[in-house]
Amino acid sequence: MSLTYFFFGVVVPYVAFVIFVIGFVQRIISWANIPVPLKIVVTGGYLEKPKTYLGVILRMASEIFVFRSLLRNTSYDFEKDETRGNKWLWLGSLAFHWMLLIIILRQLRYFFEPSLSWVVSLRTIDQIGAFIPGLYYSGLLIIAALLYLLIRRFVYPELRFISLFSDYFALLLLLAIVISGDLLAYYIRVNVVEVKAYMLSLLAFKPVVPELHWFFFLHLFFVWVLIAYFPFSKLVHAPGIFFSPTRNQKNDSRVRRYVNPWNYPVKVESWEQYAKRFEADLKAIEKKK
């Protein structure tokens, strides 16, 4: 095994995994330790301010699976003096996240021996057809969604103004991963059996790096960079939604008293204790009246 193959095939993935685990655990612990001083109740119907845990689960599910708040989001056009919706943004975001989920689930075939039956079925459904072997609907749709999300940051001045380098970097990195993955699946065509053996060897901590095409390791390098970058980027909003007070709290402030977790222990006394302590002073005041 050459030094280059060892570096990109062994060192980079394990370093990326360690960075991911440490960063992810640190982020989750920091979120879990942030106290919520009051009940945050949002306006809307029952689904927006549920009074039961079932309602909270339904609200969370609507956010996770259909991005309900983004669907209802609006923006104000100062030139036309009107409010408009962001349905294209909702559709692009929904397409990106769902296609990304399908792609990740398809990759599970490299980590299980034998392959899971439902993963094989998912690949069959996602495949475009015999006339374009190797290409998948998810692989093409996610490129379209990412290009839309990237281009809109250049087209709209208000988005250009608030966009940071990290916003562009995440989109470009995801595009690089998807495009290189499509090229590997359709054009370069690496040996899938060797790829699976390599992934299983990484999981077993006995890495055996095959001498595959250099483009395969470039694609994997993009993936490892994304994994290491994930806990420190805006992409970490995926687990972050479960820590959002406007999403995970019940609207039961009129039924059950909410205790502020920021409250520190304070010595209190009842009226009887107060009256007994100041009994002489109270009687003196009473005589003056």
Q: Could you give a quick summary of the protein structure above?
A:
With 289 residues, the protein is an all-alpha fold. It has one domain (3-288): Up-down Bundle (Fumarate Reductase Cytochrome B subunit), CATH 1.20.950.20.
Folded structure, characterized:
The chain has 289 residues and is mainly α. It has one domain: Transmembrane di-heme cytochromes, Chain C (Fumarate Reductase Cytochrome B subunit). Helices cover 62% and strands 3% of the residues. Helix 1 runs parallel beside helix 10 and helix 6 runs antiparallel to helix 8. The radius of gyration is 27 Å and the shape is elongated. It starts with a helix and ends with a helix. The model has no long low-confidence stretch (mean pLDDT 87).
CATH fold call: Fumarate Reductase Cytochrome B subunit
Helix content: 55-70%
- CATH superfamily placement: Transmembrane di-heme cytochromes, Chain C
Overall number of structural domains? 1
Give me the secondary-structure category: mainly alpha
The stretches of 5 or more residues where confidence is low (pLDDT under 50) are: none
Q: What is the H/E order?
A: HHHEEHHHHHHHHHHH
Radius of gyration, in Å, reads 27 Å
Distance between the termini: 99 Å
Helix tally?
14
